[in-house]
Amino acid sequence: MTVPREGEKMQIQSYKHNGLLHRVWEETTVLKGTSNLVIGGNDRTTVTESDGRTWITREPAICYFHAQHWFNIIGMIREDGIYYYCNLSSPFAYDQEALKYIDYDLDIKVFPDMTYTLLDEDEYELHRRNMDYPDVIDHILKRNVEKLVRWIRQRKGPFAPDFIDEWYERYLFYLK
To answer: Active-site positions, per UniProt (predicted)?
Structure first.
């Protein structure tokens, strides 16, 4: 598998289970790139939705993708602390075009005090029926919600103290 090189820019593409493109982040700087893990940073990057609408992210973010976990994590750096947005998703794939994953609707929003909320359960159920998610995917995703909650409670991975700050410092280095 091709891996992104540290310091290079990559695009991130999110798809839905039916294969349709969902959302594209135009430019993220690769901070770490291996076959199992990609960590990236971006700030004020253009995001294009499936209907063609565009918007620009409002704050610096550190993105965490793993090839063996069915989620990805975005740590957004705001004045009042770090907020996390966790997407339940397929493990990532990377080719020369972009880092790619399938978004499975369920999300967990984590606040600076490490409280969290599970989001979009209704959207997940609707898409699970409409796109005919296999039972095995449903079970994998529910197990990964539990894994994410454990990581949040244990301050593991991107939720560890200083994780986002340390990778943000690396991102600032590449901006120079």
So the answer is: 23
In the chain, domain spans: 9-175
Question: Which residue has tokens 């095995």?
Answer: 136
Catalytic positions, written as ranges: 23
Helix, strand, or coil here: 119?
Answer: strand
Residue 79 DSSP label: T
| Annotated binding-site members | 87, 103, 105, 107, 120, 123
Q: How far is CA 154 from the centre of its chain?
A: 19
CATH number of 9-175: 2.40.380.10
Known binding residues for Mg(2+): 87, 103, 105, 107, 120, 123
